[in-house]
Amino acid sequence: MKRQHEQRWAVTSSFSETLRNATWADHESAESDGYLSALMAGRLTEHDYGEMVAQHYFAYTALDGVSRELAGHPVAGRFVFPELYREQALERDLATIYGPGWRERITPSKATRTLVARIHQVADWPGGYVAHHYTRYLGDLSGGQFIRMELQKIYGYAKGGGVDFYIFDDLGSLPRFKTEYRSRLDALGQDLDDREQQRMIAEVRLAYQLNTEVLSDLRHLVKTAA
Fold first, then answer.
1. Which Pfam families match (predicted)?
2. CATH of domain 33-219
3. With bands split at pLDDT 50, 70 and 90, how would you rate the model's confidence at 31?
4. DSSP, res 30
5. Domain coordinates of the chain in residue numbers?
6. Which of 37, 75, 99, 211 is deepest in the core (most CB within 10 A)?
């Protein structure tokens, strides 16, 4: 595994901006990933798309579960938003894609098992929990909205199943929520010493890498579609 996450980052601006910049250089490579590119180009079947949804299901079952456990924590609890929980939305999506027997159809990949294990491993460290929460949800609320619109065009999905994972109606204004979320990150950063800030930045980079590896594991589907 690459050790990019060990790089030291200077916190010279807001903490939320520093976290964003920590993975910015990796975004282009992730967006050009073979699986995601093929998906956005409409070259994959609905079941091929379902493979990504299935991996999200395992990851978010873990993340939502940890969130529920930490709801009363004085630090981590600031980042627990029940409106963000994705497990039920993903169940609707999988039922739409695979039918009522979807639970027997899906299995976590090796990369997903590694991601889930890491989410549980850092659950007792508020900074680690927030790192994984931030990496997933801020992406879902940003680039994930473009993905949703494209998938609706490609597969004809409507609200109620298929792309419910990307729909956050309970949040109201997404820009306003993201602004509030970043303000909480900035407040958290002010409470952390330099060592803990660097530790959390490293975890954000690791979380991003692990999520990217989940997508990379799906590349074999692109070869099938070629």
1. Heme_oxygenase
2. 1.20.910.10
3. low
4. H
5. 33-219
6. 211
Packing angle of the helix pair 15-31, 194-216 (nearest 10 deg): 20
Q: How far apart are CA 36 and CA 58, in angstroms?
A: 19
| pTM, full prediction | 0.90
Contact 181, 138 (CB under 8 A): yes
Residue spans of alpha helices (H) in 71-193: 87-98, 102-105, 110-121, 126-140, 143-155, 174-191
Q: 104 with 96: CB under 8 angstroms?
A: no
Residue 25 has pLDDT above 90, yes or no: no
Q: What backbone phi and psi angles, to 5 degrees, belong to 158? A: -130, 175
Q: What would the pLDDT profile of 73-105 be if each residue is shown by its tens digit?
A: 999 999 999 999 999 999 999 999 999 999 999
User: What separation in angstroms does the CA of 18 have from each of 8, 26, 60, 148, 209?
Assistant: 11, 14, 25, 27, 17
Q: What gap in Å lies between CA 198 and CA 161, rounded to an integer? A: 40
CA dihedral 26, 31, 32, 35 (to 10 degrees): 120
Please check whether residue 13 is in contact with residue 19, taking contact to mean a CB–CB distance below 8 angstroms.
no
